[in-house]
Amino acid sequence: MSLACYAAKPHETLGRLHQEPTEPTQSGRNPFQRDRDRIIHSTAFRRLEYKTQVFLNHEGDHFRTRLTHSLEVAQIARAVARRLQLNEDLVEAISLAHDLGHTPFGHAGQDALNDCMKDHGGFEHNLQSLWVVDFLEERYALWSGLNLSFETREGILKHCSKNNAQKLGLLGERFIHGHQPSLEAQLANLADEIAYNNHDIDDGVRSGLLSIEQLDEVALWRGQKEKVLKNFPDLSGRRLVYEVVRHIIHILVDDLVKETQHRISQVNPGSIHDVRVAKPLVGFSAEVREQATEMKRFLFKNLYRHPQVQAMTQEASGMIKALFAHYEQFPNHLPQVFRVEDDLYRRISHYIAGMTDRFASKEFQKLLTTQHG
User: Region Disordered: start and end of each range (predicted)?
Assistant: First the structure.
């Protein structure tokens, strides 16, 4: 498929942190495909299988993890990229890598670690994902990290404080000047939203924390449910949920494509440079954005703030803070690889952020055993 003039082109990449020989053309891999393959083979990517999305990994085999979420994001992003003539390889690499820096225990772990780091530079999971691919992975003889292309790293860093952006050189300039990343990066961000909103509905109903009757409060759900039942009046239970979620994803994806095409036609960018200095071009229409936001508010109130989820959140937060305090008191208990940097607190943050749910739980149980043994 030919790429649009404003798509990211492999031969126009701004390069890698460390110069490498160009891969022979007979291998068939362009720079963004190499990035994707490096991400998939990384240790951090494998760990996503045992990191919480909403429900703890041990609560059920059918709930999403960070790994399955990342795969769903990549699928949605590639499908949209194809329709917009954007670079599918780049959008896939960004989608697969976007959560590499997430802590164990989902947002509860992230909030707890950020609280521990509030006097030491804070914790931003997007910046952590960048640290993973730039420094923390150890796979190559000549450099640390995965040495990914600028465009993939740009897409991984969705958010960044201006203070941290100033330390990142070219990669941080857009946060200082208010510029945009590539369309592929913008698309991966919206595909992330589409994926987690809809699979959280599925997981919420499966868990019993959400009911189909509750979901009828949400206009987007209610409208698609009516259409489904018009065609399949006897449909109920899991099949009904799956069918409605499928319809919602279709509505969101279709609107995203049409609205993005409309915005692009108004700006008429001739290159990726024009994209970066324009306003955000990938997005939903005002009507669908309002409906998607209503769904997010509903999930926040009824799922993420559900007493059962909150109890898990408090327990997870306590474990993260206890581990942080322990390593702060006994830095020699950190693995040797995390004793290299001068900044003790950042070293502790790196170590804890890389833990899976079950490893963090085991380490916490060791602390309890030691304290009460």
Answer: 10-36
